[in-house]
Inverse folding.
């Protein structure tokens, strides 16, 4: 089966885990020098959706947060002094959704993405494993929204929009009756193309973010 027609479903099995890990191992990721930017890690955390299908964890940020309150986001945050990207990603998972995993759960990394809000984010792809338990930390997360990978394989997504504020296309990813914009959409889109479809040459640092995410 060709890489771009892998399957309409992604069962939560060791076979799929191995395929994803292999694709990430062969992916030559782009690093950003991060000059003038704060460094953060975000996690693309893969879980069993309860029916045996693979899903990823998306959250809605708590309304009381000082930045990006109420927005949909992947778990993540700023890297503390002395931390690696992987350590920061795992710590943020623990703090935000009470999911406690070791470094052996990490499958690999995707490209760095510089944001309009002053960060360079590194996506960490994680396989939580069967029976993983998690719950939202109400100080940081209003809701956990598992999104099945099969829901990303649709003809109306990704979507690129033009805006007067930028000559770069704004990226939108759709799932169910909802959507997200970059930077979250940039991580999801590259994951879909590189890890799910096996296309190694897909880059996302050229895509724009919605204006509301610029600050």
């Amino acid at each position: 089966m060709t890489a771009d027609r892998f399957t309409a479903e992604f069962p939560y099995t060791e076979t799929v885990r191995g395929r994803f890990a292999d694709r990430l191992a062969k992916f030559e990721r782009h690093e950003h020098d991060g000059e003038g930017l704060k460094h953060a890690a975000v996690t693309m955390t893969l879980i069993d959706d309860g029916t045996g299908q693979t899903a990823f964890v998306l959250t809605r940020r708590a309304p009381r947060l000082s930045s990006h309150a109420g927005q949909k986001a992947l778990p993540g945050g700023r890297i503390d002094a002395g931390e690696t990207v992987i350590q920061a990603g795992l710590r943020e998972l623990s703090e935000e959704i009470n999911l406690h995993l070791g470094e052996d759960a990490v499958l690999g990394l995707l490209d760095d993405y510089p944001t309009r809000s002053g960060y360079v984010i590194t996506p960490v792809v994680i396989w939580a494993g069967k029976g993983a338990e998690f719950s939202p930390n109400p100080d940081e997360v209003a809701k956990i929204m598992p999104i099945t990978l099969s829901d990303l394989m649709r003809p109306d997504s990704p979507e690129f929009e033009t805006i007067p504020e930028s000559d770069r296309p704004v990226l939108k990813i759709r799932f169910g009756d909802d959507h997200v914009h970059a930077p979250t959409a940039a991580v999801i889109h590259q994951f879909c193309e590189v890890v799910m479809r096996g296309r190694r040459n897909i880059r996302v640092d050229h895509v724009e973010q919605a204006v509301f995410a610029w600050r």
Summary: The domain at 3-151 is CATH 3.90.79.10 (Nucleoside Triphosphate Pyrophosphohydrolase).
